[in-house]
Every structure is written in C-alpha cells, then in structure tokens.
C-alpha cells in the first residue's frame, strides 16, 4: 500500500482564473505538479478547469493563447487560483471584484498567484489575513491595503486564503499543498520527477536540525538505490541513531525509513519498467533487489500491479 494512502483520496476540483498577461511559467509550475501527482499515484487526485471572467480566450505575457473551459461565474469547487501577472492594476474594478466575491462563496479556498493578491485585496477578500505578493509590489501592496497583513514570504497559507509571490514559488507552494493533502512522500516523488535541485529537501522539513537529518537521510537513500544500505548505517552516516531517524521520519513523512527507502526503490523500478526495455531481472538489480521475484512481489504490493502487466498494457 502506498505510504501516503491514508491521506485524502477525493479529487480536488480546482479552477484557474486566467487574465491576459498571465505567466506561462506560473501556470506550468502550478498545474504540472498536480498532473505529476495524478500520474505517480495512479489516481485522479486533482482536476482543473481553466477559467476567464467571460470565457473568452486569454493570452499569456509571451503570447501563448489559452481557450478557457468556462467563465468564472459558472464554476465552483475546492480551490480557485487567481492568476494575473503584468497589467494587473488594469484588471480590477467593480466587475472583477464582484465576480471574485461571488466566487468566494462557491470555492472552499482562494489562492492568489504572482500579482493575484492585489485583485483579492481590492475585492476585500484578504482583509484580516496574512498575505504576500510578488516582492516587487510588496511595499506598494502594504501601503494600499493596510487591512491586509502583508509579509515578505515565498507563499503564505492563512486559513482558506493562500497567496504566492511568483512563478518559482508557485512550484514550492503546489508541492506543499500536495504534501499536506496526500503526504510528504508523494510530494518528494513529484520533486524528484522534476529533478529539482532541492528535491531531497522538498518534504518541508526546513532548516531545523531534525529537518536537516531527514534531508540528509533522503539524499543518501536516493544515492544508494542500487545498493541499499541498512537503516542503521544510513542513520550513522547522517550522524544519528537509528531510533532517532525512525522517529523523525515518522513525524515528518508519516512513514518509517524502511518504507520510504522501499518506495524510492520501487519508484525507480516503475520508471525503468515504463521508460526502458530492460528485463525485469536487470530492473530488479538496478533498484536494489537481487531476486526479481522479490522485486515483483514488492512492486505488486506497492502499486497493485506487476511490471509485466504494465508493459502489456
């Protein structure tokens, strides 16, 4: 059973409200991790709909056109993501504000990416909330909306209001939300899929001593998938006892080091099954299993299917 399977399994319905001049980078960094989470979990954890105020096509800052699925007033769901970028001050006004205030009753939470915080604040939807915005606009934002507790952060989650500073931070925020809903182990897998420089630290442990311990252990595990080390040795190389490492990993990842390590090895095996023509025996060796039958049993227990069945499909 996947180590994050005890988390929420309902599909999250997300509306992405786009305006002319939105950032391609921000949109991709928001949606692609959700797509990857669906793929890695083999479940529809996330579903998204592109929206505009009037359902007319919008164009990004680089000219990429997007044809929305619907207009904002016809949409509802779990989360509305408001995504303008350049020219955001010209996007406000009564029509936008009224549409956003109405949407706040149809969506469980509101998220503002890049300069989207300005539109939410102008609609009165961030009053009394902590919030951030693209840092180039932070000083003006704080002066214009004193009823908002403006802070210089990459992203802020305050109750059912989420704000994010820019495109790179959007990826971090989405990983955080995946981890909160479906477990840090899945968020870690998504980070590794995108080859992020800090993928071994994407579980949210931060810079605390315990966070650094788990980060070191995760990195060492990733480096030794083909020749797995005993957990005691992993702990020793990280300057810890096995018991302490087990406690910290259970606390931060919701799973034991053994379970996390096995998941990493089986994720590698699944990648090799789907993306190469290597034999099952070779895949077993590359993922740290001397016995192909043992790898196949573990694979089936983790993913509810076998390498052969995946290839036949």
Short précis:
This protein is α/β, with parallel strands linked by helices. Helix content is 47%, strand content 14%. The protein has helices at 24-41, 94-103, 116-122, 138-144, 167-182, 184-193, 209-223, 231-237, 242-253, 257-275, 280-286, 292-303, 307-312, and strands spanning 12-18, 46-52, 58-59, 65-66, 70-71, 77-83, 107-112, 130-131, 149-150, 155-158, 161-164.
SSE run: EHEEEEEHEHEHEEEHHHHHHHHH
By DSSP (H or I, 4+ residues per run), the number of helices equals 13
**Major β-sheet profile:** 7 strands, mixed
Average pLDDT for all residues? 89
Rg over C-alpha atoms, rounded to the nearest angstrom: 22 Å
CATH topology of the largest domain, which one? Rossmann fold
Q: Which residue ranges are poorly predicted, with pLDDT under 50 across at least 5 consecutive positions?
A: 1-7, 197-208
Distance between the termini: 21 Å
In the CATH classification, which architecture of the largest domain applies? 3-Layer(aba) Sandwich
